[in-house]
Each structure stands twice: as structure tokens, then as C-alpha cells.
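Case study 2.
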Amino acid sequence: MQAPSSSASAELPARDRILRAAQTLFYGHGVRATGIDRIIAEAGVTKVTVYRHFPSKDDLIRAYLVQRHDTWMAWFKAGLTAYRAAQSPTERRTRPLMPVLEVARDWFGAPTFRGCAFANAIAEVGESVASVAEIAARHKAELRDAIADLLPANAAAPGIAWAATLALDGAIMNAQTGAASIDAALQGLNDLLDALNQSHAAMTRD
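Prediction:
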């Protein structure tokens, strides 16, 4: 499954071109390292146009993260659905979390992979940009809920899904350190998801 990507297009309205440029540059190079002038050049707009749509860079950062959440989550959920459909009935019952591994494999191998956009933004701006932490928290909650949807609805599912989310976060951070770390990150994620599958099965039996 192709990993999510963004690029500017002259056929888009100006606001969309600005956001597409921000997606590419903020994610690829960092929100602090990327200046407004570079976004202007990438989007093919004027500075006046940028500030008409986004009165400050902080506003653009927030809009970038909201759009990143929407596009990435749509891609992530579609991947989970596709990989779950490819599982056998037995695999769906005994290894329900493994679609998370396959989606991670697709993402980590993409040339545009630069880790979690939300963790990166928090590391760069902390609390200096209002609402970034709240946007990131909503992202993680929806990520957990998407993983929980792989599991039978029972009392054990929320806790197992949250543990799987933490396992994925750790794998993302490890894979972000370089190509040589990707295999180890995926192997570790595989082992943790397997353990969580077994824990879920045991809790379900009890």
C-alpha cells in the first residue's frame, strides 16, 4: 500500500496549495526549520496570499497538523482494512493486531518517512504553539481507536489497543533514526504485537 504523500499543484486553490506545500516542507524538514518564504516559493503564491489565509505561521502549523491527521488517518485505516481482509479467518482470530505491522512496514519503507508528524511538532515547538498538544492527543486517541477496531469488542480491547499504540510509537521512533534501524523496529513491533495478541486471547478466555 502506498504511503501518504503531498505535493503542491498549480491547479489547486491558493489555500490548498499553501497547505500542500506546508505538508511537504513541515513534515520533511521541520516546522521551525521551514520558513514562510520557502512555503511561498513551493506553493507559488505571494506573501500577502499566505497571510490572508493564515494570519501567522502558528496558524499554518496548526492547519498543517489538522490536515495531516485527516489524511494520515484515512490512509492508516484503509491499510488496516486491506490487510485485515487479506488475513485468513484463523489469523483474524489469533493475530488480529498484525495489520498494524504491515501498515507500519509500508510507511517505514517510504522515501518520505520522517517519523510521527505530531511527535516531531511537539519536540520542536512544545507548548509555544497553542493547541499543538491537543491536536496530537486527539491524533493518538483516534489511532488507538482504529487499532481497537481490529479486536473483538470486549473489556480487554481498549487496554490492548493502547499498548499496541505505544508499541507502534516506539517502532516509529526507532525507524526514524535511519534505514539501518527499520528492520529492527519492525521486528520489535512484530514481537510486541504477537505478545499483545496472546494477552488478548488469554484475557478473552478468562
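The two ends are 37 Å apart (CA to CA).
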